Amino acid sequence: MLKKYQPEYYCEPQLLTIELTDKPGSPNVIPRPEHVITRTNICESALKVLYRLKAAGFEAFLVGGGVRDLLLGREPKDFDIATNALPEEVTGLFRNSRLIGRRFKLVHVRFGREIIEVATFRSGHDAASDDMGRMEDGMILRDNVYGNLEDDAWRRDFTINSLYYDIRDFSVVDYTGGVSDLEKGVLRIIGDAEQRYLEDPVRMLRAVRFAAKLGFRIHADSEAPITRLGDRLEAVPAARLFDEMLKLFLSGYAVETFELLRHYDLFRYLFPETDDCLAKEEKGFPHMLVAKGLLNTDDRVAEGKPVTPAYLFAVLLWEPVRERAEALLAEGFSEVQSLQRAGDEVIAAQTQRVSLPKRFSLQTREIWTMQARLKRRNGKRAERLFAQARFRAAYDFLLLRADTGEDELQSLADWWTEYQEVNIDNRVNMAQQVPSGGVRKKRRRRRKKVAQG
């Protein structure tokens, strides 16, 4: 029996377990009385799109994660729609829409800040003979081969994401056994797992993400090829992997996701330098900052607080930055210079795998370099640091480092905590009592002028 959340407006229907039939073209159709989805739980904007497509004579279904989450009693993050209307026909029905995507052509219908994504039914690539469905080395480069509802169901990635809510009679249509897998807590890829991962290696990351988010186990057949095919992620564009990273680590299940990525040996293809650092021990203990940082991230997401990608990457890349900065410090660079240079080098290498837009990478670098500046808090320095836009993120990062026992930073973290809690006069007194110290800048040696004549 599927676990389901039941708010006040829910009645008490039962979801029947219906086994998948092997006969192609004959889906399991679960009528309205036998499942828990009601229109009350579907956002008004999605209903408007569904009804307008229906009124225009097109087939229209709620599909994917929205149906999955509703059946599990969860609140969907977004609502996607599948239809037999072509993208140009959808944009003709909705003036508030625009066509997006090249690899996968979609229509976004906008209602204020809310976007409803509409996709035309798609088919597999066996019959693709033109540029609408290009493949290279087994990877799908373009996916605009249109089909019917059954084609669309079998080309989706996982059975639990291949469920359709029919607006005509409010039934759930299941071609692939998704309802049964939902009840068993199983994540199963549709078709031959190895072939599907080769078509799109990001599916391996999606398998990890859904397993972590839903607490499902990955079916043995879907799990087996993952560790063998991890290197295929190197062929995925870095910009696309950045988008996947946000989904992996900013959805409230970062710790579980991180553990599964390392379990399936995928993390090293995303953050190779960090993975190398995590393989080593420090003073006989494993590095804990990444795990604790991700736990803090999950806590903030659960509390509805924002988490910036800049802070996430500061956590994920800190170990290689710290290791490189220590080497530069030993060469005679100041602590600030060491962190700046180490940060530049690590980010330059990292963006070859997972891109980090400049607006975030600059903030990440600031968080790192402020770790050195937070030590220099005497006189008016504390006031100037406290006024900086990135102070809070840098302070939170300092607390994280102190919590993991790094460099005996607890007293410094406590000082900055107290500094924020006292009034302005006490802040001045605290800063005045801090010894000046710190590393002085080395004066540049002036070149001797060459005598002329």
UniProtKB/TrEMBL annotation:
Keywords: ATP-binding, mRNA processing, Nucleotide-binding, Nucleotidyltransferase, RNA-binding, Transcription, Transferase
Organism, scientific name: hydrothermal vent metagenome
Enzyme type, top EC level: transferase
Domain (tRNA nucleotidyltransferase/poly(A) polymerase RNA and SrmB- binding): residue spans on this chain: 215-277
Stored Pfam families: PolyA_pol, PolyA_pol_arg_C, PolyA_pol_RNAbd
Protein name: Poly(A) polymerase
Matches recorded under HAMAP family: PolyA_pol
This protein's record includes keyword Iron-sulfur: no
GO molecular-function term, one example from the UniProt record: ATP binding
